[in-house]
Amino acid sequence: MKHYSAFAVAREALRYHMGWERAWASPEPKKKYDVIIVGAGGHGLATAYYLGKNFGITNVAILEKGWLGGGNTGRNTTIIRSNYLQDPSAAIYEKSRSLYETLSQDFNYNVMYSPRGVIMLAQTEHEVRGYQRTAHANALQGVTTEFISPQRVKEIVPIINLDGPRYPVLGGLWQARAGTARHDAVAWGYARACSAMGMDIIQKCEVTGISREGSKVTGVTTNRGDIACDKLGLVVAGHSGHLADMAGFRLPIESVALQALVSEPIKPCMDCVVMANTVHGYMSQSDKGEMVIGGGTDGYNNYTQRGSFHHAEETVRALVETFPMVARLKMLRQWGGIVDVTGDRSPILSKTPVEGIFINAGWGTGGFKAIPGSGCGFAELMAKGHSPLCDEFGLDRFYQGRFIDESVAAGVAH
Amino acid sequence: MLILTCPCCGVTGEETEFHQGGEAHLKRFGPGASDDEFHTYMFAKENPKGVHFERWRHNNGCGKWFHAARDTVTLEVYGTYPAQTLEPPKEIRDAITAKRPGWTWREFA
Ligand SMILES: Cc1cc2nc3c(=O)[nH]c(=O)nc-3n(C[C@H](O)[C@H](O)[C@H](O)COP(=O)(O)OP(=O)(O)OC[C@H]3O[C@@H](n4cnc5c(N)ncnc54)[C@H](O)[C@@H]3O)c2cc1C
Ligand SMILES: [Zn+2]
């Protein structure tokens, strides 16, 4: 694998860019691997990367039914923050956010992490109290956030309307080192690093069955033949229930479409991310100048990767009252992804009823921010059988009634 | 956009008139149930990719609950039927079989 650097760019500029090599290989599947990861989204690729980097396990295949990063990883609005309420969440999301700070250097691929700051607006008395509580919890967890005044909000975001027609801005929860990154680059960077370690990333390879001997997994059936493995990681987001069904168990997860949209590109007007949970919408501006907008999930289970029209309408209405200037913008594109939602809005990083099968799922509307941390923890869980980052997120928490309630932090889908 | 017909009042409307109320035909466990039974009832979701049976409420209409058989991939509605039934009626199962031969859903198929 050739090193990317300013020197490499200059060298290629002088020879018509003919010297760039493919970022990852496309091998044929082998008969057997030590570990198979199903799903080449961010979480699957990051899991494979840290299996190799931290535990020396490189006889690994990552199987992807479409193209890598084509699931929610390539469809999300890229907000990265760690201002959650509960201690186990703070631990994994802050670990993740801090890994994002140096991810580009770590695997020599520019993920364009931009710690531009995230504000979550408080627009009701209830929300003010809720976010003050979160700010106090974050202080104890070592996560730097602060509750700021409406005037401070206006200084940071001049285009905001503090006295909207329905809900005035009463303050905000501000995380200055939160921000965004380039979603595709995160998937591509991990993929390139995995391929360089000798792992096989096999695209257009759909898992259609899971084989077991007694209570232990032995491999998978795919459209490209049977492949054996000792350990199997299911990291398929919205398709978790579908894969669990193949393995013979059910999950506390429902799949729904979540959509996003972007406007035509305009000059820079907002250099942070603003989330408005009460009116239900959030917005940031991409490097291309498009306003990136996200809103609500569909009200019923589906796998359509599209989203209901009325949600787009509600989201845009919420943003027009928060930022009146966007009223005159045209929207360019709209799309959806299938998110895997749990009852307590926290992920599942766990062993399963089948020996050798591990599951990393339930990130729902907010797992892009968690990719490096989740990959790190889940790799440890798969390699060693437990991990301090993951142990609280086991499937057994439902059985035990030990929920990690993040319904407030997950407020508006993000 | 999802279009449903309420079997209680006969009105056909689009999804903003209704509210989905989760999986249908759950077997409830009363006092004395084991932890396993309760856990399955409470948390083990069907969440199928394909044929699904759900509870819906006509909340911006007559306000009543009913059942719907629906496809989570195509959004096709195979039929709606009264809430006071323990399993989907034969005509609805036949309609599904005609479209999706070999479908399964927990104990019905
Ligand atoms: C519109 C939208 C906006 C979002 N905004 C944010 C945000 O701002 N911030 C944030 O933190 N999170 C956000 N999220 C959530 C985030 O995108 C997800 O939590 C995260 O990307 C999940 O990553 P993943 O790797 O688990 O899943 P995915 O990226 O979906 O990867 C799973 C992969 O598994 C593959 N797969 C499925 N079934 C099979 C099979 N049978 N065989 C082989 N492969 C299979 C799929 O093709 C897919 O590529 C958003 C999501 C959406 C949809
Ligand atoms: Zn009705």
Secondary-structure map with pairings?
The complex is a heterodimer of chains A (414) and B (109).
Chain A: H1 6-14, E1 32-38, H2 42-55, E2 60-63, E3 79-80, H3 87-107, E4 118-122, H4 125-141, E5 146-148, H5 150-156, E6 171-175, E7 179-180, H6 183-196, E8 200-202, E9 207-213, E10 216-222, E11 225-234, H7 240-247, E12 253-263, E13 273-276, E14 281-285, E15 291-297, H8 309-322, E16 331-342, E17 348-351, E18 357-361, H9 371-384, H10 396-400
Parallel strand pairs in A: 1-2, 1-11, 2-8, 4-13, 11-18
Antiparallel strand pairs in A: 3-7, 4-6, 5-6, 9-10, 10-11, 12-15, 12-16, 13-14, 14-15, 17-18
Helix pairs in contact in A: 2-6, 2-9, 3-9
Chain B: E1 3-5, E2 12-14, E3 19-23, H1 35-43, E4 51-57, E5 65-71, E6 77-82, H2 90-99
Antiparallel strand pairs in B: 1-2, 3-4, 4-5, 5-6
The complex binds flavin-adenine dinucleotide (FAD) and zinc ion.
Residues 38-44, 63-66, 70-73, 75-79, 206-207, 235-237, 239, 243, 258-260, 294, 337, 339, 363, 365-369, 414 of chain A line the site of flavin-adenine dinucleotide.
Folded structure, characterized:
The complex is a heterodimer of chains A (414) and B (109). With 414 residues, chain A is α/β, with parallel strands linked by helices. Chain A has 2 domains: 23-109 and 183-252 and 344-410, FAD/NAD(P)-binding domain (3-Layer(bba) Sandwich), CATH 3.50.50; 118-178 and 255-342, D-Amino Acid Oxidase, Chain A, domain 2. Chain A is built from 10 helices and 18 strands. In chain A, the strands form 3 sheets. In chain A, strands 1, 2, 8, 9, 10, 11, 17 and 18 form an 8-stranded mixed sheet that branches. In chain A, helix 2 packs across helix 9 (371-384) and helix 3 (87-107) packs across helix 9. The model of chain A has no long low-confidence stretch (mean pLDDT 96). By secondary structure, chain B is α+β, with helices and mostly antiparallel strands. Chain B is 17% helix and 28% strand. Chain B has helices at 35-43, 90-99, and strands at residues 3-5, 12-14, 19-23, 51-57, 65-71, 77-82. A 4-stranded antiparallel sheet of chain B has the order 3-4-5-6, covered by helices on one side. A two-stranded antiparallel ribbon of chain B has the order 1-2. In chain B, strand 4 and strand 5 form a beta hairpin. The A-B interface holds A 239, 241-242, 245, 249-255, 299-304, 308-310, 343, 398-399 and B 1-2, 15-16, 19-20, 35, 39-40, 42-49, 52, 54, 70, 72-73, 75. Bound molecules: flavin-adenine dinucleotide and zinc ion. Flavin-adenine dinucleotide is lined by residues 38-44, 63-66, 70-73, 75-79, 206-207, 235-237, 239, 243, 258-260, 294, 337, 339, 363, 365-369, 414 of chain A.
